[in-house]
Amino acid sequence: MNIRPLSETYAVSPQISPGDLPAIRDAGYTTVIDNRPDGEIPSEVQTEAMRAAALALGLEFVTNPVVGGQLTMANVEAQGRAIAAARGPVLAYCASGNRSSIVWALSQAGTLPAAELIARAARHGYQIGHLEPQIEALAAQKSVG
């Protein structure tokens, strides 16, 4: 398990297993977001196995599958809602942590400058600079709405 914090309350990780959840809870995370579609992974780490293990430990578990190359605004909005509803720090995971970084940056548009959101992901090797125009556009929409 390789937890990579993007903020004080949100971190990403490559794929985790049920056996990682006690350490995640003990590290202070209260919510786990699964950004990985079941079709990509073996049954022992699919949504229902992970949900059952997380809930048994008192963790909140949110499913928001992001299909590679097919990110939707529904994904971005669901990630933002899950982060906002969390009662403590959030750990989101996917195959590498990249998709979880992308939906975080887009969902947090307007809370920090786009360059800062991009830089936080880049510190952990996630190159999302190409999203700067989308982050800026979302930030502008939020400031008008």
TrEMBL record:
Keyword ATP-binding set for record: no
Record EC number: 3.-.-.-
Keyword line: Hydrolase
Listed InterPro entries: BLH_phosphatase-like (IPR005939), Prot-tyrosine_phosphatase-like (IPR029021), Rhodanese-like_dom_sf (IPR036873)
Keyword Transmembrane helix: no
CDD domains with a match to the protein in the record: PTP-bact
Residue intervals of the Beta-lactamase hydrolase-like protein phosphatase-like domain: 3-110
Identification of the protein by name: Beta-lactamase hydrolase-like protein
GO MF annotations in UniProt: hydrolase activity
